[in-house]
Amino acid sequence: MQDSKSTPSLFSTVPTAPPDAILGLNTQHRSDTFTKKVNLGVGAYRTAEGEPYVLPVVRRVEQALAKDPSTTHEYLPQDGLKHFCDLSAKLILGADSPAFTNDRTVTVQALSGTGALRVGFTFVARFLSEETAVYIPKPSWSNHKNVVVQSGLPPTKEYRYFDYGTGAVDLEGMIEDLRAAPAGSVVLLHGCAHNPTGADPTKDQWEHILQVVQEGKLVPFFDNAYQGFASGSLEEDAWSVRRFVKAGIDMLVGQSYAKNMGLYGERVGALTVISSEGGNGEAIRSQLKAIIRAMYSNPPKHGAMVAASILGDGDMFAEWEGELRKMADRIRDMREKLRAALIKNGTPGNWDHIVKQIGMFSFTGLTAAQVEFMKNKYHIYMTSNGRISMAGLTNYTVEYVADAMKDAVVSLKKGVLHNM
């Protein structure tokens, strides 16, 4: 009998995957013992003291659920908690949305925003075409590329989005690239607070983008991870999605409650498929449920119950809106203070883009070499493209970060975006 120990494992040739650019960064930060280390890579809100934050209204709902004897841990259906799905659709589309007429809208619960994208793109691969081209902005959230390919679609294509000279949206380049996209292509759009640049189209620019999407018969897929967290207004941050819905086109919308309710680890999200014509909603729902059944069977219950409780209660909803405004205000305050500190210490360049951008992230314009310099010398962690999480800054660290940025810019001048 052959000794199994002498036979190489079937898995011995599995190569090591590269670490995730963001999650790997967090691992490095946690293992760093330097007392003044700063993490500007994490995509999660932090308090003015740099600590994780549980919204008071979320905490009360969780306590109430724990005390309620009717609360159980029974399975949800594949498409999730119906009350949560209905309220989520109204939150992003508006309670009086035309999409709710004629059976045009199907919403299912998803594993936060990533899960909504994964289910949505799998649906596209199965019922549009496995060869459907997917266009994402350049730059975009790094995981978009991974999710699209894992869903059975070809590698993503890119459309120009960010103007590195102005720090704003490159509308001309974006329009030119979208006009060249084949009919039926899916165009991924950030509904608000573009990650990683923090640069959003104006309402007039959204109108122009919509026109090109309609003329080119493209299919928009909105990724909405920051509704209410960008401007502080749930209504304002939903404007782009609602404008496209009003146009009566086929589209998909992903939502996440990680940022705006602080439910990061609960993985609470939703996917809505909107048809230009009604009448096929149950068939669409059945196929989404089949995809979910094979992927993870059914979504988690606790976070959806928390979110539904807040969305469905007028007083708690109003309290949540107030919390969102406070969080958005702190982000804006950090933008102002970082810019002021950079001006005060004489860092070369124009840093106005920091206050013009919106949402959790700022695209600083720092090069990969400058980012590495700051990590090695100052123990300040950020993604290699120079994106920083404004929530990672505090009143105690903002000047330290600004001084480190000055040192990096002065020491490694090549490639600095002085005209931003």
From TrEMBL:
Task: Report a single Gene Ontology molecular function.
Answer: pyridoxal phosphate binding
Biological process (GO) annotations held by this record are:
amino acid metabolic process
Alphabetic keyword roster: Aminotransferase, Coiled coil, Pyridoxal phosphate, Transferase
> What Pfam families does the annotation carry?
Aminotran_1_2
Coiled-coil ranges per UniProt = 317-344
- So what family is this one in? Belongs to the class-I pyridoxal-phosphate-dependent aminotransferase family.
What this protein needs as a cofactor is: pyridoxal 5'-phosphate
The record's note on quaternary structure and interaction partners says:
Homodimer.
Q: What is this protein called?
A: Aspartate aminotransferase
Note from the entry: In eukaryotes there are cytoplasmic, mitochondrial and chloroplastic isozymes.
Q: What is its EC number?
A: 2.6.1.1
Q: Where is the Aminotransferase class I/classII large domain?
A: 35-404
Catalyzed reactions per annotation: L-aspartate + 2-oxoglutarate = oxaloacetate + L-glutamate
Q: Which domain of life is it from?
A: Eukaryota
